[in-house]
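User: My instructor asked us to take a sequence, write out its structure as tokens, and then describe one feature of it. I'm not sure where to start. Here is the sequence I was given:
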Amino acid sequence: MSVLHEQTCSACHADAPKLTEKEIKQHLNHVPEWTVKYIESIPVLTRVFEFKDFAQALSFTNRVGELAEQEQHHPKIVTEWGKVSVDWWTHKIKGLHTNDFIMAAKTSLL
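Assistant: Let's start with the prediction itself. The structure tokens for your sequence are:
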């Protein structure tokens, strides 16, 4: 794991620069098991976490929610029996920002 998990998110404004494809590829090296998918041409950092039952999945979901509140950066979270899908992207810029990779790294440590 990189030092990304030790960083905090910075306030992001609508005119903040999106990460380039090259920067995205570089950051992906620091968040193993995360991938980029595109939703309506917007890159989204995504990962599915697996658990042995719904209770563990729900507990993880709540921890991700607490982390999101602490950093004031919020993902899409889908909780199902035995798995949780987490998607990070920066809504204001309709793309990926360093904040998304910071949060992915922090989520991986939960």
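For the description part of your assignment, you could build on this observation: The mean pLDDT is 92. Try explaining in your own words what that tells you about the chain.
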